[in-house]
Amino acid sequence: MTIFTASVQSLPNEFAAGPDNEFLVKSGSIAAGDVGGQIYYPSGQRIAIFDDFIGDAMNVQWNIVEGTDSATSAESILAGGIGGVLRLTTGDAGTGLAADMIQLTQALQWQASNGDLCIEVRAKLSAITVCYCFIGFTDVVTLEAPIESASSANTLTSNATDAVGFMFDTRMTADTWWLVGVATDVDATHQNTGSAPVADTYATFRVEVSSAGVATFYYNGAQVGTAMTGAVTAAADLTPTIAVSKTATAASMTMDNDYIAVSMLR
Fold first, then answer.
1. What is the rounded CA–CA span in Å between residue 164 and residue 103?
2. Helix or strand or coil: residue 66?
3. Where are any strands of DSSP class E within 106-202?
4. How would you classify the pairing of strands 222-228 and 215-219?
5. Cβ contacts of residue 189 below 8 Å, gap of 6+?
6. What is the torsion angle, in degrees rounded to the nearest 10, for the CA atoms of residue 111, residue 148, residue 119 and residue 57?
7. Where is 100: in which H helix or E strand?
């Protein structure tokens, strides 16, 4: 291992080496990772959460909401999930999202208007048929598919007033990840990434939203689609969310979540 050391004089004015040789950032934020996959650390300039789902119970900052078939749906930190894995298990009523969906939410403490609003999730689906998934932000903490297929060609129904994220819904004509958004009940122009999930294979999803409500999407570290204007209302109160459900079949499926990172400027 190579340890980097530097004197205060050799660093730009924004940075410094502390008395115990620690690296100091005088302003701005600290981030690790390449563009399209940077994880931010909390600081005086930025609010940030990184949850690797380590331990044997979920952090109390998260809510789990379930459909009416709650007897069969469940969430758990996998005992054998090396590195920490949150497993969401859907219901198996087979009557649709209202019965079988399970959803992770938090509090409505996030706004695009702060600047640099971002969510990144690494996850995998156990099945990619007859199912629905949403990863991003929405405006309620109770059970709701923020945006879903309208069951007609590649058209959508927005249940949320404000939401933005990645959506996979096999009721669409194209069974691929879609980039979707809605701002004060006005749908943004949705985009087809052309990328389909692979069952039981991890992928990374990232949504960055500017203070003007413009969203940029990254899939496995690469930008997909074009910048989405009107993706969400800048002043809307939002929660990060992960939702998964079977859409018709009376059989449950799982979604394994390796980590979630959420951040924005103060």
1. 15
2. strand
3. 117-125, 131-138, 147-149, 156-158, 163-169, 178-183, 186-187, 191-192
4. antiparallel
5. 228
6. 110
7. helix 97-100
Dist CA 260 CA 207 (whole Å): 12
**What is the length of the chain?**
266
Query: Six-digit token pair at 86?
Result: 């949150």
Residues 6+ away with beta carbon under 8 Å from 196: 128, 175, 176, 177
Buried b (16+ CB within 10 A) or exposed e, 102-123: bbbbbeeebbbbbebbbbbbbb
CA dist., res. 211 & res. 113, Å (int): 4
- Bigger pLDDT: 194 vs 6: 194
The pLDDT of residue 117 is above 50: yes
Q: Which two tokens stand for residue 224?
A: 């997909």
Which of 239, 197, 263 has the alpha carbon at shortest distance from 38?
263
Amino acid 65 reads: V
Give CA separation, 59 vs 27, 50, 104, 167, in Å. Answer: 29, 11, 12, 25
What pLDDT score was predicted for residue 32? 72
**CA–CA gap between residue 159 and residue 138 (Å, rounded):** 10
Confidence of residue 16 (pLDDT cuts 50, 70, 90): low
DSSP string, 215-234: EEEEETTEEEEEEETTSS-T
Query: Containing H/E element for 97?
Result: helix 97-100
Please tell me the distance from the alpha carbon of residue 26 to that of residue 266, in angstroms, as a whole number: 16
SS3 253: coil
Lowest mean pLDDT among 30-44, 114-128, 161-175: 30-44
